[in-house]
Amino acid sequence: MRVLLWHVHGAWTTAFVHGPHDHVVPVLPDRGPDGRGRAQTYAWPDTVRELPPEALADEPFDVVVLQRPHEEALAEEWLGGRRPGRDVPAVYVEHNAPQGRINEMRHPVADRPDLTLVHVTHFNRLFWDAGTTRTRVVEHGIVDPGPRYDGGLPRAAVVVNEPVRRARVTGTDLLEPLAERVPIDVFGMGADALGGTAIDGIDDLPQDRLHDEMARRRVYLHPIRWTSLGLSLIEAMHIGMPVVALATTEVVEAVPPEAGVVSNRIDVLGDALARLAGDEGEAAEMGAAARRWALERFGLERFLADWEDVLEEVTG
pLDDT by residue (tens digit) across 294-305? Predict the structure, then answer.
């Protein structure tokens, strides 16, 4: 099967392109948001080709994977007039939790009989109003980074992009009170804008090095208030890190009690960080449980098998 998709979210796309198909990603000279091409910091298989827009019209695609509202118009233009859903089968992957008042959370592809809407969490499916559009849920899966946990540094790791701009969404305001209990290292794009006596911001790192740096920290902190489900949380669990996280969106489903502490009480989260930072044995035991759970719930094999079912249904 030949699949067209945009390189939007690096970690999710990395997992998706490990499937058994031929994948094409658009590339533009500036490698901007609509044409990033092949990943520069993730390891992708040779089954992924990057092509400029002018080369796409002659490609015999079996399915188009849309991820942003404007991609439907881009696809029609770049595919020589072929419309996703009508002239070539298409799915729309929704990565994000909806924003706004509950009665106004209507999805951009609601009431589309020609599309299948795939959510990455059951929380997203519950909150988005898709009308009569067919919906499916394919939970996240990742390429296993391996059991790298060392935990030698009694510090907490956080991975989030643009923590200053996104502020309360990513729980950036919670870092100061939590850092009074345990020093915190924040990784991600724009993280170097953070700083403080117990907070260190470390700008974007290649994925492999990021995993190594995460693994050196004693515990993974997930302070994000509103997101579908951060892949960095799943990566931390695969690495073998214990988790301390806000009990928001899909986190309560993703982190079982034996793998970490999940709460909306800042004092409970702070106590958990301090306890795990001070007890290497408990931290390692929780981290091992987190890895076992992550391999079962968010393993790459399950993810790709679920996607095979969706693609067969859409193209069949």
Answer: 999 999 999 999
Q: At what angle do helices 231-239 and 207-216 cross, to 10 degrees?
A: 60
Six-digit token string for 191:
């993280």
302-309 contacts at long range (C-beta below 8 A, 24 or more positions apart):
302/141, 303/15, 303/138, 303/139, 303/140, 303/141, 303/142, 304/15, 304/18, 304/19, 304/20, 304/141, 306/138, 306/139, 306/141, 307/16, 307/19, 307/138, 308/19, 308/20
- Identity of the amino acid at 202: I
Q: pLDDT tens digits, residue range 119-164?
A: 999 999 999 999 999 999 999 999 999 999 999 999 999 999 998 8
Topology at the third CATH level for domain 153-297? Rossmann fold (3.40.50)
Tally Cβ neighbours within 10 Å of residue 124: 23
Whole-angstrom distance, CA of residue 73 vs CA of residue 93: 16
Annotated domain spans of the chain: 2-142+300-315, 153-297
Q: Which CATH architecture has domain 2-142+300-315?
A: 3-Layer(aba) Sandwich (3.40)
- Helix ranges restricted to H, the chain: 10-16, 71-78, 122-127, 163-166, 175-179, 207-216, 231-239, 251-254, 266-278, 280-297, 300-315
Q: Angle of helix 280-297 relative to helix 266-278, nearest 10 degrees?
A: 110
Which amino acid is located at 9 in the chain?
H
Q: Which residue, among 296, 300, 310, has the nearest Cα to 18 in the 3D structure?
A: 300
